[in-house]
Each structure stands twice: as C-alpha cells, then as structure tokens.
Amino acid sequence: MSFTKSDVNKIIEELQAKDWIQNFQIFGKKIMIDAVSPSPAMHDKKKLEDALINAFKDKLPEATVNVRVTVKAQKAAKLPTAPLKGKKIEGIQNIIAVASGKGGVGKSTVAANIAISLQKMGFKVGLLDADIYGPSMPLMFDVEKAKPRSVNVDGKSKMEPVESYGIKLLSIGFFADMDQAVVWRGAMASKAIHQLIHDADWGKLDFLIVDLPPGTGDIHLSLVQEVPVTGAVIVSTPQHIALADARKGVGMFKMESIDVPVLGFIENMAYFTPEELPDNKYYIFGQNGVRNLAEKMEIPFLGEVPLVQSIREAGDVGRPAALQANTIASQAYTEITKNLVSSLAKRNEDLPPTEIVRITTMAGCPT
Ligand SMILES: Nc1ncnc2c1ncn2[C@@H]1O[C@H](COP(=O)(O)OP(=O)(O)OP(=O)(O)O)[C@@H](O)[C@H]1O
Fold this sequence. Notes:
alpha/beta, Alpha-Beta Plaits, Rossmann fold, 2 domains, eight-stranded mixed beta sheet, 13 strands, binds adenosine-5'-triphosphate
C-alpha cells in the first residue's frame, strides 16, 4: 500500500505542525519530510523530529518516515522583500559588502580569503577594495605595481580589473597615492567607489566582494544606497571594544534607508594557535564573543578564523592563506565561505526562484 498526500497532510494537521513543514515527498512507503524548527536549539529540533516520527508511527505504522529538520533562517522574517537598492549591475549576480566596526580586526584579510575560497568552489569572483583608509588588496594579491588598463566596451571606455589568482581586482590603491586618498572628503571617495563599480568591465561575476573601510561613515552610506548590495558580512575580533563597534555596523545596515541584510558575523583571531600544536588554543581576545553576539542579535554566525602566523605571512607575501591546501587557515576560510553561501541562499529565498537556483546549484556549493 502507498499513501497519498492527503494522508500525510492529515497527520501533520492533527499534530498542528503545519507551520513547521516546508515540504514532503512520498516514494512508495517512504515519506521524506523537510521541517523547519522555529529555534536553533538542538532539543527543539529533536522534539519536532520525534513528534513527527511518533505521529506517523501511530497513524501510518507501515510507513518509513525520514525527517530532516533545518533551523528557520533567523533573519528570514525580517529580510527585506523590497527590490535591491540601486540599479542592478549587468552581469553581477551578488554584491557582498565586508565590513567591520573597528579597524585592524582583519576585515581585508577575511575579504581576500573569502574571494579566493569562492573562486576555488568554482564561482566567478571580483573583489573591490573600497578601503580608502588603507587599501591593502594590491599587496595581498601581489599586484602592487599593476595599473588597470582602459578597454572599450560597446563604445564606452571602461577600466579593466587586474586579475590575480583568478580574481578580478580593482582597488582605490591602484589610482590614488595613499597620502592623497586618506584626505579625500566623503563625496570624493564615494564618487571614486561609484566609478570603480559602474565604470569597470567586471564581465560576468557570481560574486563581487567589496572590502569597505572600517567604521560606519559616508562611504558606507553612499555605497549601500547606490549599489545593489545583496548582503553584508561583519568581521570582528572577540574583544569587547570590537564587539561594540560590530554592533554599530549591524545597526548601520539595518537602518531604514539602507536595509541591507546582514548575512552573518565572522569571528577573526578567535584564538591563537601555534601551527605545530593545533590543539593548543589561547583565547587572547576573549572566548566566543562574536558567536555570542550573533546569537543575541539573531544574526547567523558564519565561523571563526584563528590567529595564526601564516595568515599574516601569506597576506604580506601576496598569496592569501586560502590558497593553501588543508591548513588550519584554509579550512577555516572554506567553512566560513560555505556558510556564507548558505546564508545568502536563504536570504535569496525572498527573491524569485530563478535567483535561488542560481545560487544553490553552483559548483561545489552546499545548499
Ligand atoms: N587570523 C589572522 N591571523 C593572523 N594575522 C591576521 C589574521 N587576520 C588578519 N591578520 C593580520 O592582521 C593585520 C590587519 O589585518 P587587515 O588589514 O585584514 O585588517 P582590517 O580590519 O582590514 O584593517 P583596516 O583597519 O585597515 O581596514 C594584517 O597584518 C593581517 O595580515
């Protein structure tokens, strides 16, 4: 005997679990149920799974029931359903802003390594270094001397990004000498960033990662208001002073005039570990500060990067650590990047299905 959809629906309704069922499939005697738990707590997930299994055991004992419980995207309810702000940039699917409240927490290093990890997963990636106070991407990608060429695209002159390790890169650092850039007034810096995005020949990109300056200033406001930023990632160290600023960063993205979803927090320098003794962890900036803040603010926690000497060295020699194979650092960045893509896929659930499919079916990506 096989079952009908209405048999299954009836049991779900009797259990009053309709709100938590995403979908189900029936294959002969096998019923596969996708449920969404309202809370991330293990015991709540287990409770929902047990309740469903027991109800089916009772009402349809001949069925084999398989329940998969995922956690309700914590931000989903609050995600904007409004269209993205700014004019869509032809060919660029997702623009991810990497921000930090406080300077020096490793935001640029994280941005560079996320770009590399996405590229390793098979995505087409661009990286825009919009950090006018300290553009570090040319150094991190070993292209300090590069000068972007001008190319003609459909009769218009555009900047051609510099390519390094398969990433298309543009940086304020390619154009302005550093002493000059830091004294740019807000409007001037915003205009430069606007040009780097709109007047460049980025081609087709799955992701454009934007490394923002630290803090919450004019540049952030103009960037997120003019450019269709898909989501933001906030990098912080676990120490109190950094967390307070990270909170402000979230506040900025949540402002009504900005309304950019925060895809998650990343804890950088989560603990120090000597590479030859990876089990020795020293929580020099405090333990789990960012993870706890993420939980409190109901924002996904994308993962942690330890403080290891090789990450700093890799950045300094122009070969981001994510390019290494199977090191503590590269594994951490891969994990974080996978979580970021998952968080983005959830965020895009509010967009038309084609948008979601585009993300969830990309090479090497978890759904
Ligand atoms: N996990 C890590 N382990 C070791 N060193 C790190 C780590 N993350 C970043 N660093 C180092 O810390 C320094 C600051 O990093 P980075 O320039 O990425 O910070 P930032 O937040 O972008 O700074 P800014 O204030 O300029 O925006 C760099 O020397 C970098 O190599």
